[in-house]
Write a structure and sequence with these properties.
Length: about 450
């Protein structure tokens, strides 16, 4: 065994990977869900070691803001006065102490070893002292001590308890009709790591076949979905060969709603995806359009994301355009248009562990302008009688119902139709999707990302 391998083993290769990912997230805004699988592969971690590294990395990244408040209280100084490399290890250690069943001794000693090997005895002593202090109390003690009292600030208390920034909890509260019980359920579900959802590409493999070969289970809502509770989807032949992909069931329902929504008059086979990168929905729509003899145009502003679409739609009747969806140069007259708008992503936080601590509400007004312009352009490009599906992976009312209301108010000759039948198809009861006319999915209700979708139809002449 090489000296480096031996060192990694002694230190715990799982924690070393977790620390390195957390450091990259902090130092260079890396995405944990992209970097972690790469490091696991490069360092040959598999099985239980890979599972532990994943749990520690994602769990720590999800809880960062709350762990920082606890670390600051235990260290007696704000975290911005703690060296970043030490802070990564403190977060990792505090997460293990407070939010896992790992024993206190293992959590503290592995953290101290990580610091000692890189930084020496002094910093290791500091990490030891802070983590020991944290370990003396259970998580509930720290919540009671540091969270706003539930009687004074219910939203702030729940946000702290379930490791969300307060402003995001406030947005969920509004989107859930100001129900405290549902907010608690939504935050709790959003604080869990979701299982992988696969999509079986129509015409290439069925969900039943994919479930059999992957050891997964067929989805509840999308006829193309398979739940994969464990295992690396990248190792499945069906995924490697492009018969299947990784896609949240809620995203599948959005693409399906576009294919199922009823235009007024016959479908002439011109479909458009106006914000298509990286191509998850375009791939599903491309397969569905092939089966129904249609053609999909896929527009994407970012060239590198357009390249990803080109790869994933290979062999399907799809043309990819690198263009601004607000001025694509495409001829009007589409039967169906999807506007899967750039958004704050607040609906898929559980799949992007660190995202909740990176986002700010200052981004939202600019996104709302873009969303409004893209939807307005889609309504110009759709033919009379044609349908437009507007969707976001965000439940933020400013990005969802308020965009729809503003565009409807400014665009004569367009009506909003009930999105529930198109979302449910003949697979499940549309009434389970709330009162309509839009659909808002939630992790705590459907166990999907919190996708929003609305269906608009241009009046036939
Ligand atoms: C929510 S993502 C779409 C996800 C995609 N539909 C899928 O399922 O894989 C929004 C996409 O819109 C792109 N985008 C941003 N501004 C755009 C614009 N003005 N015109 C077209 N695409 C744009 C972003 O680069 C991003 O790839």
């Amino acid at each position: 065994m090489s000296e480096k391998k031996l060192r990694d083993k002694q230190l715990g290769a799982d924690r070393l990977v977790a620390r390195d990912v957390l450091r990259a997230v902090r130092e260079r805004d890396a995405y944990a869900n992209l970097l972690l699988p790469k490091l696991l592969r490069e360092r040959g971690l598999q099985g239980r070691d890979a599972a532990l590294a994943t749990e520690l990395t994602y769990g720590t990244a999800r809880s960062t803001g709350v762990l920082d408040q606890i670390i600051a209280a235990a260290a007696g100084r704000p975290v911005d006065q703690i060296d970043g490399d030490l802070l990564d290890v403190l977060r990792l250690g505090a997460y293990q102490l407070l939010r896992t069943r790992i024993g206190a001794h293992a959590a503290v000693s592995t953290s101290v070893d990580l610091v000692r090997s890189e930084k020496g005895q002094g910093p290791a002593g500091f990490v030891n002292a802070v983590l020991r202090k944290i370990s003396q109390r259970p998580e509930q003690y720290w919540i009671d001590d540091l969270a706003p009292p539930i009687t004074e600030d219910l939203i702030g208390n729940l946000a702290f308890t379930y490791a969300h920034p307060r402003w995001i909890a406030e947005v969920f509260f509004q989107a859930l009709g100001r129900s405290a019980g549902e907010l608690q359920a939504a935050l709790a579900a959003d604080d869990q790591r979701p299982i992988v959802h696969l999509v079986a590409r129509p015409g290439q493999i069925t969900a039943e076949e994919l479930a059999l070969i992957s050891g997964g289970e067929e989805g509840r809502y999308s006829p193309y979905c398979v739940y994969l509770p464990e295992g690396d989807p990248g190792k499945l032949d069906a995924v490697r060969e492009g018969f299947a992909g990784v896609q949240d069931e809620g995203s599948q329902l959005v693409a399906l709603a576009l294919a199922r929504a009823e235009p007024d008059g016959p479908d002439t086979g011109r479909w458009l995806d106006l914000c298509a990168g990286p191509g998850g929905k375009a791939a599903l729509l491309g397969s569905l359009s092939e089966l129904s003899g249609a053609h999909l145009d896929a527009v994407e502003l970012a060239p590198h994301r357009a390249e990803l679409i080109t790869k994933v739609v290979e062999g399907l009747p799809v043309t990819v355009h690198v263009a601004d969806g607000r001025d694509s140069g495409l001829e009007p007259g589409f039967d169906r248009i999807l506007v899967d708008a750039p958004c704050s992503g607040l609906g898929s936080l559980r799949r992007r562990p660190e995202a909740r601590w990176r986002r700010t509400d200052a981004e939202v007004p600019g996104l709302v302008v873009l969303q409004t312009e893209l939807l307005t352009e889609a309504l110009r490009l759709v033919r009379p009688g044609g349908v437009v599906v507007y969707s976001t992976c965000s439940p933020h009312p400013a990005e969802t119902t308020e965009v729809i209301a503003a565009v409807l108010a400014d665009t004569p000759g367009v009506s909003q139709i009930d999105a529930r039948p198109a979302t449910a198809g003949d697979v499940f009861d549309p009434e389970t999707l709330g009162p309509g006319p839009h659909v808002q999915l939630w992790p705590h209700r459907q166990d999907t990302d919190a996708m929003f979708l609305a269906v608009l139809r241009k009046d036939a002449r």
